Amino acid sequence: GNIGMLICVSVVSFTSVSHSQITRLYSRFTSLDKGENGTLSREDFQRIPELAINPLGDRIINAFFPEGEDQVNFRGFMRTLAHFRPIEDNEKSKDQNGPEPLNSRSNKLHFAFRLYDLDKDDKISRDELLQVLRMMVGVNISDEQLGSIADRTIQEADQDGDSAISFAEFVKVLEKVDVEQKMSIRFLH
């Protein structure tokens, strides 16, 4: 169980975005946009204190940028932020056949999974887990201890015996974790 917490808590503790806050987010976006060209660079994101101190800050920042791009516009910014909006109770009862909202549990889990899947092969290997754990804990813990945490995590999650964690296995480990609350971003103060 604590492995599930470990995996999820590492993601981020950020809050919600409601429609009335879009205007405020836009002004936050423009205040971050130092080049005043309507897009943000990675450096602009690094000025956000919550991301600067978050051990996975760089991975989260990367998630805002489409493959091969080094700028993100307001629309892309909002789209990525949408994953972090807590799910309101009234949203749970919405049209079941409509498109799944970006902040649905499954999309949040996909987002978290991608932070770990460094080589994008749809599996989290022991090595990837180690790299992310190392980012999270810094140097305060020995490689040996990290190795045993990684081994235990994989042992607990790996159901098909391939010594890696697939998305389905990742979801299973996080079944009892309150992903909605653990993954929300505080971009508004």
TrEMBL record:
Residues 20-55, 104-139, 145-180 form the EF-hand domain. GO terms for molecular function: calcium ion binding. Signal peptide: none annotated. PROSITE patterns: EF_HAND_1 (PS00018), EF_HAND_2 (PS50222). Belongs to the calcineurin regulatory subunit family. CHP subfamily. GO terms for cellular component: cytoplasm; nucleus; plasma membrane. PANTHER family: EG:114D9.1 PROTEIN-RELATED. Keywords: Calcium, Cell membrane, Cytoplasm, Lipoprotein, Membrane, Metal-binding, Myristate, Nucleus, Phosphoprotein, Protein transport, Repeat, Transport. This is CHP1 protein. It is found in: Cell membrane; Cytoplasm; Nucleus.
